[in-house]
Amino acid sequence: MIRNIYILTFLTLLTVQTFANVNHIDIAKISNDSKLITVFNFVKDNKQYYDHWTNEWSYDKPKEDLINQLRGHYKSFSALKTKNTETYLLLGDIAHYLYNMDDTAYYSIAVKNYDEAVKSSPKDFRVYWFLGYHYALSNVPTSAIDNFLEAEKILPTQQPADFWNDYAWATAVTNMPSHCIYAMDKVKSISGNEGSFQQQLGETIYKRIVPVDKNQSYDKKDIWTASQSDKTTFTSRPLGIKIIVDSIWDLQIYDYQKNQAVFIMNPPKIANKKRREISYTIALIMKTANDKDKLSDYINVFVSKYTDKKQIAFSDKYDKIIAYEIKDKTMYQDIGGGHLYMIGIERDRPKYAGLLLENPVSLPKGNSNEITYYRASDSKDRFKGKIFYAIMLDSCEDINEQSFSIFKSLFDNQIIIE
Q1: pLDDT per residue as tens digits for the range 1-32
Q2: E-strand stretches of 3-93
Q3: For the chain, N or C: smaller number of CB within 10 Å?
Q4: For 405-418, how does the pLDDT look when each residue is reduced to its tens digit (9 = 90+)?
């Protein structure tokens, strides 16, 4: 991989002390040869020179000398006839260091060795940690975060603070400030002190999350963001929600006013048994609530006018949820009458608001071997207090089965509420 060089103007990331993994490799599991132990100690003792990329070499040791030494050390360990997880992790780290020193051919060599470590020990959190950190330094954000999250799932009871320090770094450069704050707190809870990342950059990360006032009005563009892939993802950090929809769906998104925001979806029409194309609507209404407000009262505003309604067990996805199935024969009389569903959800502001909503973001591609200056965007905070979510399917009896199936799938798989 040819290196694209970035300097993030909101961070001086090049000065941050990270741990580069090698401290968590056991040389005794690789070899008891005194020469190889000496080589290993050299790699570990000099990591401050190459555990990160630097724009201008200003160290007391010549860069080319270190490159040549690391190349030689890589050959020494790669010559071992028997290799295990520790060996592959060390080879990956040495290749990673060479990549940091602009020997870009070693990018794929590092990945190859880390992948071998994954194959060797898929339940060892270090294999994903090391690989994720390498991807984070190489602007491969999705792979970086995927591996850190995989490592997080299988962390041992005694978690190393170093892992969370590197996690904070990786999530900072992939524009995931809530994850970064979460990781900084993990370091503090384990070690009793702020980690090196937080000491140098913590204040900057906190400033990236901008407060919002639930009693003010906001243009929809100020509280929603959208990203496009095979589906379109709409995220509102202030409202604590992410909605993933097919790009062919018609949408109406409204401004946040009077403590309320509305998001309406019109999926493609469904044909009934008579082949008549029938439309239906899925609507989300999000309301910031006061402490004394009750979800049941809020949902009752929508359903009280219907006589044929019953509470149903719709989902256990959220702890505070109310669901109604509604039938109204006075509606849509030529297509079987109205068949509606109203789901009410209450959520309090989580400790790490945004954690379930963030996705890794790539730095923009610059010219190879030229410095590109990049400033990460700020992220709005979640509205304080609790939020009510009213999610309604407005359909008819003729297409109830099909429209309900799409509605349930959307709820289960494509709506994330913190």
Answers
A1: 545 444 454 444 444 455 558 999 999 999 99
A2: 5-8
A3: N
A4: 999 999 999 999 99
Instruction: Indicate if 350 and 224 belong to the same structural domain.
Output: yes
Q: Mark which of 183, 207, 231 sits at the end of a domain.
A: 207
Closest CA to 184 of 172, 194, 171, 173: 194
Degrees (nearest 5) of the Cα angle 402, 403, 409?
A: 95
pTM: 0.89
CA 11/CA 200 separation, integer angstroms:
9
How many domains, in total, are found in the chain? 2
Burial 392-416 (b: 16+ CB within 10 A, else e): bbbbbbbbbeebbebbeebbeeebe
For residue 162, tell me if it sits in a domain.
yes
For residues 110 and 138, membership in a common domain is answered with yes
* C-alpha closest to that of 389 among 257, 264, 306, 299: 299
Distance of CA 250 to the CA centre of its chain: 27
21 phi-psi bin (left φ>0, alpha ψ -120 to 50, beta other): left
Range of the domain at 224: 220-368+377-417
